[in-house]
Design a protein that fits this description.
The protein is α/β, with parallel strands linked by helices. The protein has 8 helices and 14 strands. It has a single domain, classed as Purple Acid Phosphatase, chain A, domain 2, CATH 3.60.21. The strands form 3 sheets. Strands 1-14-13-2-3-4 form a 6-stranded mixed β-sheet, covered by helices on one side. Strands 5-6-9-10-12-11 form a 6-stranded mixed β-sheet, with helices on one face. Strands 7-8 form a two-stranded antiparallel sheet. Helix 3 packs parallel to helix 4. The longest helix has 18 residues. The N terminus is likely disordered.
Length: 360
């Protein structure tokens, strides 16, 4: 996914189409052939010229448990989240050492919890059994040795065993085939779930659905109904953070690939179904109706952006591995997100470098 690096968008106010399709087919396919008007692209170009997301490398940690806010004041009840996405641990390129380094650096920030954002390993989607077991051992062993704070996980496409049956030589009948492997890898009963930490509720979603020997991005019907019920059952006074592997909304999906000429923009601009949720409009409308969804975190594209729409922030949070441990991606270094989440639903976010140097 060699994509142009977007700048921060806070806010972009890119319009959401008003016509939301109903039914399974409409929800899954709506954005696949999305048409982006020329005026929208013009406004996005202006937004790209704005302020960059803060990328820092801290040498001394800021305190948590009432973390220091942007103003420098301490807000009681604030919790600190470290969001480490796209680790892609592997035996090559020193990645095991890199994973340990990232977790150690993140814990020096004194987080109250860590969430890994999917693509923990590289790769079991196409891997044969021996490779999959090797990656499982590396990830679980490193996590056990290096992580001393509560940790939760989101499933990424690279964490799903054998969906490419030809390359993996799997039959699909293996006991841990597909997402069962990811559940075992992360120690969860199901690939989507919710939990509370302090004053916040966290909803961890499963973005990845099968499409031939590859994947696409949406919530299946059972998960969507569960999400509706979970949002309805959450007190309106309780702020919610949603975490998915594939972005629900992100401008990185529009800047993917080669630049488009003005003859094409606004006529046939396509959002690739594997780079952003195809049910994005439906989910955004659901979050807007809920009223207390404050931030949606994702990874997958290894880039940084922050879109704010209708008061909801969508943050794509880079990658621990950068360009799969081969350096930065379009100027975005190896790193992770740090969020200080306040009881009133406001928050601060920054992207922390942890000093990794690619072993080329």
């Amino acid at each position: 996914m060699e994509q142009p690096s977007p700048a921060a968008l806070e806010p972009t106010h890119a319009p959401i189409p008003s016509a939301v399709p109903t039914g399974t087919a409409g929800r899954r396919d709506f954005l696949r052939n999305a048409i982006i008007g020329a005026s929208v692209l013009s406004s996005m170009r202006a937004a790209f010229a704005g302020h960059a997301l803060p990328i820092v490398q801290s040498t001394t940690p800021a305190p948590s448990g009432g973390a220091v806010a942007a103003s420098g004041s301490t807000v009681p009840g604030t919790i600190r989240l470290a969001h480490l996405t796209d680790i892609h641990v592997q035996p090559e390129l020193g990645a095991e050492v890199g994973m340990a380094s990232a977790f150690n650096h993140a814990q020096s920030m004194k987080p109250d919890l860590i969430i890994t954002g999917g693509d923990a390993v590289m790769d079991v989607f196409e891997a044969k059994r021996a490779r999959a077991e090797q990656l499982r051992a590396i990830f679980q062993g490193t996590l056990k040795r290096e992580c001393g704070v509560p940790v939760h996980h989101v499933t990424g496409n690279h964490d799903i065993l054998g969906w490419n049956r030809k390359k993996s030589e799997s039959t699909g009948t293996e006991a841990d085939w597909g997402k069962r492997f990811a559940c075992d890898l992360f120690g969860v009963a199901r690939n989507y779930y919710t939990f509370d930490h302090g004053p916040w509720r966290f909803i961890c979603l499963d973005s990845v659905q099968p499409k031939d020997d590859r994947y696409t991005a949406y919530l299946d019907d059972a998960q969507y109904e569960w999400l509706q019920q979970t949002l309805a059952a959450t007190p309106k006074s309780m702020p919610i953070a949603v975490v998915s592997h594939i972005p629900i909304l992100s401008l990185t999906a529009l800047t993917y690939g080669a630049p488009r000429s003005r003859e094409h923009v606004g006529t046939d601009t396509v959002i690739y179904h594997g780079e952003m949720h195809t049910d994005a409009t439906l989910l955004h409308d659901l979050f807007k109706q809920a009223g207390n969804v404050k931030v949606c975190l994702s990874g997958h594209v290894h880039l940084l952006d922050h879109c704010m729409i209708d008061g909801i922030s969508y943050i794509c949070d880079g990658a621990v591995c950068g360009s799969w441990w081969k350096g930065s991606v379009e100027g975005i270094p190896e790193g992770y997100g740090v969020l200080d989440l306040r009881p009133d639903g406001t928050f601060t976010h920054r992207y922390e470098r942890y000093g990794w140097q690619a072993r080329k």
